Amino acid sequence: MEFNHNHPLKNLNTFGIYANAENFANFNSIEELKRLLENAKQPLMILGGGSNILLTQNIKGSILKNEIFGIDIIEEDNKSVAVKVGGGVVWHDFVSWSIERNLGGLENLSLIPGSVGAAPMQNIGAYGSEIKSVFKQLEAVNIESKELKIFENKDCQFGYRTSIFKTQLKNKYVICSVTFRLNKYPEFNTSYGAIEDELRDMGEITSLKSISQAVINIRSRKLPDPNIIGNSGSFFKNPTISNIEFQSLKKDFPLIVGYPNGDNETKVAAGWLIEQAGWKGFRDGDAGVHKNQALVLVNYGNAKGKDILNLSKKIQDSVEQKFGIQLIPEVNIL
Ligand code: EPU
After folding, report:
1. 100 an active-site residue?
2. What's the Cα-to-Cα distance from 310 to each of 126, 230, 282, 306, 316, rounded to whole Å?
3. CB of 312 closer than 8 Å to CB of 297
4. Ligand 1 centre from 210 Cα, in Å?
5. What is the whole-number distance in angstroms between the Cα of residue 78 and the centre of ligand 1?
6. Which residues have C-beta within 8 Å of that of residue 177, sequence separation ≥ 6?
7. Is 330 a catalytic residue?
8. What is the mean pLDDT of the chain?
9. Domains of the chain
């Protein structure tokens, strides 16, 4: 339960950036977390899978890494099961666990990097699904009072890549475990066109297993494997603009990609904007833009966090100049 000093973080962030933590410790129970919180030097940072951060400097204060494991069915009825999962469990390991047991709800979220404890923070989503639709509740410890609190679905204020833990309660709670409600008789969600195309190419009937495999195939083709090329998935959020703005952009850029978001807004594909601004496949030293998905910035080896950050700023400037749209990072920049 000791803190390590100047702990290397290169293997603990999927961008593969060199940086150290002034103090670092793991916790594998709520009790251990509470004890560490008593002794931790501020500021405090909680680390999950390190798949949504860009380290631009050594981290002062303390980093605590969630290593609470375990996947347990805690309730079951005719239609569904409630499964309590330790925050330290690797997200895709949990998805695989659910597919093996024929429990539905997570199949579209296959192969998303990161940990279960981090998943609610930004309401992870892909291929038309988000965790908010299978989320039941979570247990979190208040960093100040050390009290354990249960957050139900509505308490979390889930939105597109956001929750109360990124807004009002930022840095106030440590998520320890998450409980999901999974379906025994799932309805499949293949509305995201790429999934149907992939299932057809695979020549498989629609099932939890085949949808999960289709998502794995699509992601593996488009997104770089962080074990091979450092990255944190989408670097920016897809920006939302008014329908009026979108229609006026469409006059100048007839192929612009956007999806309705409510009645008055359109969510624009940032990957398209970045590609059109000429950045797809760009490389400067070891910092670059992925060749198959322009929304993903990559570290080819020894890029520094600042190199990636500088590149991201250049991309923001050029997209703003060309389209008048501001890109907001999705990754947490530290
Ligand atoms: N596009 C381009 N060029 C590119 C990339 C994309 O023109 O370089 C166009 C595509 O042709 C497509 C559209 O943009 O028409 C959307 O692309 P894609 O389906 O790859 O999805 P995305 O909007 O770029 C979002 C999520 C991903 C998630 C996918 C699939 C965000 C910020 N990103 O990306 O999530 O996997 O949808 O659902 O919402 C992540 O958050 O790290 C992540 C990878």
Report:
1. no
2. 27, 16, 13, 6, 10
3. yes
4. 21
5. 36
6. 68, 70, 84, 85, 86, 87, 116, 117, 138, 139
7. yes
8. 96
9. 4-66 (3.30.43.10), 71-183 (3.30.465.10), 230-333 (3.90.78.10)
Rounded Cα gap, residues 140 and 176, in angstroms: 5
107 has catalytic annotation: no
Question: Kindly report the CA angle at 224 between 96 and 176, in degrees rounded to 5?
Answer: 45
Q: How deeply is 68 buried, as exposed, middle or buried, from its count of CB atoms within 10 A (0-12, 13-18, 19+)?
A: buried
The pLDDT tens digits for 203-257 are: 989 999 999 999 999 999 999 999 999 999 999 999 999 999 999 999 999 999 9
| Pairwise CA distance, residues 68 & 196, whole Å | 36
**Chain length of the chain:** 334
Average pLDDT over residues 88-109: 97
105-132: string of b/e by CB count within 10 Å (b at 16+)?
bbbbbbbbbbbbbbbbbbbbbbbebbbb
Residues with CB under 6 A from ligand 1: 126-127, 222-223, 233-234, 237-238, 257, 269, 271-272, 275, 280, 293-295, 330
Options 161, 198, 212, 232, the catalytic residue: 161
- Give, using CA atoms, the residue closest to atom 24 of ligand 1: 271
pLDDT over 70 at 123, yes or no? yes
Ligand 1 center to residue 314 CA distance, Å?
20
Tell me the whole-structure pTM to 2 decimals: 0.93
Return the pLDDT at 1: 61
- Residue in 98, 212, 232, 234 annotated catalytic: 234
Position 2 confidence tier, pLDDT thresholds 50, 70, 90: confident
pLDDT band for position 288 (cuts 50, 70, 90): very high
CA distance 107 to 156: 22
Q: Name the residue among 220, 231, 219, 222 with its Cα closest to residue 300.
A: 231
191: pLDDT strictly greater than 90: no
Q: Which of 123, 143, 170, 118 is CA-nearest to residue 30?
A: 143
Distance 271 CA to ligand 1 centre (A): 6
